[in-house]
Amino acid sequence: MVELTAAHPFDEAITLTALGADRFGGHTSQAYWNMVGPFGGITAATVLQAVMQHPSRLGEPVALTVNYASALVDGPFTVTARAARTNRSTQHWVVEVLQTSASGADETVLTATVLTAVRRPAWSVSDMPMP
Fold it and tell me: In Å, how far from its chain's centre is CA 6?
């Protein structure tokens, strides 16, 4: 039996560390580097990972909208994920990715919204097969 000890590069790339209330720390991954920065898909997956890791999350992801304000540079970043509104079955999240600029200021490089929902049993019907 072969035992796998190394994480997949995707899992490593979306790894986040809790930094306190609504904040997570991460680092860009060379495995998903494009010409000027990380691929947009891995960045979107990292944003979703922050919501999925959040202790207040309700339900599963339903929708994700990402706004790329700037390319991430190689290095650490901070993700802030907060529930803007929680209802009985849905949660609306606001997410922001910050990186420290050359001047030492934290700058927004990405904003996103995420909708999560609890899937509740619902009425359904199956079509009758054709004769």
Answer: 22
Residue 1: the pLDDT is 62
Are 32 and 39 in contact, with CB atoms under 8 Å apart?
yes
Measured between alpha carbons, how far is 33 from 27 in angstroms, rounded to an integer?
12
| pTM (global) more than 0.70 | yes
Q: What is the pLDDT of residue 94?
A: 98
Q: What is the mean pLDDT of the chain?
A: 92
Task: Report the C-alpha gap between 119 and 60 in whole angstroms.
Answer: 8
The bridge status of strand 60-68 relative to strand 76-86 is: unpaired
Task: Classify strands 76-86 and 23-27 as parallel, antiparallel or unpaired.
Answer: antiparallel
Place of tokens 């930094």: 19
Closest CA to 46 of 62, 66, 63: 66
What DSSP line would sit under 57-121, residue for residue?
--SEEEEEEEEE-SPPPSSEEEEEEEEEEE-SSEEEEEEEEEEE-TTS-EEEEEEEEEEEE----
Calculate the CA 12 to chain-centre distance. Answer: 14
